[in-house]
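Changelog excerpt

This revision adds worked examples to the README so contributors can see how folded entries look when concatenated. The first example is reproduced verbatim below.
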Amino acid sequence: MLGYPGAGKTTTAKIIHDLTGAEHLWADHVRREMYKTPTYSHQENLHLYAHLNDTTDKLLSVGKSVIFDTNFNFYKDRRRLQEMAAKYGAKTVVFWIQAPKKLAKQRATIDAHLHKHTRILGHMPEVDFERMATNLEPPHDDEVVITFDGAQVNEEVVRDKLQASGIL
């Protein structure tokens, strides 16, 4: 998943899960399970993502499809997952959820209470939103990308894009 915080990544991931049955690894949910009061420290992030990567590796090793629902802003991180998937002959797809920055920021920093099913960690500080938004690296030519309009995500739109790409 790629996109600003609040762009609609988790909403899209949940719909993809419902349509495909792929395992949905939702980083915010796993963080909440692992840490009662998350600190987002470097050490916590390393531990969380080591766990998620290990889980992904295990699921791929038994032929499961995985939706890794976190913000993969950095190409190097997406590349690491491409290499992991390649070990098992699995394809990778970057789902790039594009939403106007102003809308995404409002969802993530102000209106989290309106999106409790996806914003389970509450409001994001504006400084964190800006840092993450600034660091977003667009997809590279070697990545398979399906782009969604985060302001218009719904089951019909997701189904149509997955069918057009041959995933469904």
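The second example, added in the same revision:
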Amino acid sequence: MRNKITNRFNIQTIAAFIFLTGSSLSLYTQKEVRVIKKFAEYKRLAKADSSRKMVELKTIVPGIQYDLRYATPNNFMHQKLYKDGDITFLRLPVAKALSKAQQELNTRGLSLKIWDAYRPYSVTVKMGEPIKDDRYVADPKKGSGHNRGIAVDLTIIEKSTATELNMGTGFDNFSDTAHQDFKDLSNEILQNRSLLKTVMEKYGFKALETEWWHFYWNDPDFELMDIDPKKFKKKLN
């Protein structure tokens, strides 16, 4: 009986604290996932293994375009979640693979446009509060490929006009129409989606079944991070 009362008291105390302080913290416990928060720890790992280095995409993928939606209110959260809208990062091997995809598309007069890449873990926690559906927003208990620097949200544009190819839905469309296997679409849309998926998979990415724009590196062995992206611009020496 004492244990039951103690457990109930602890839960009520936590709930009361969150209510009284107006805290935006959820009850997701970080004991279930290891999240690197200190740049010094990331630096140590990246110096020991260069594949863990985070690189700014425009430094390694020439001509790539950005429309970083979470740096603006133009997203499903309707709020600015990032401080900066002109930088974004991926792990070194992932960025190199993306560069190869960009090069192939360039031969067709096309280019990639990035909506999101690295995402701090705390942003995933915030996203998970209103959208409790891990088909569209990663469960913070597990973390996201974005938090590991190995996932990217993107589309294809025409280089000459910067016009997006028609993919049938916009970014962050949480409906069946955005699923990879949804076929009730025009031939043009199906061909455009197929082009994006084919090129990305050719260079080592895997497609998320519920989002035509989301691709992740086929090697999940990277740490979750909650580090300000600007810090990745610091030299590792």
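Reviewer comment on example two: The chain has a mean pLDDT of 85. The CA atoms of residues 29 and 141 lie 7 Å apart.
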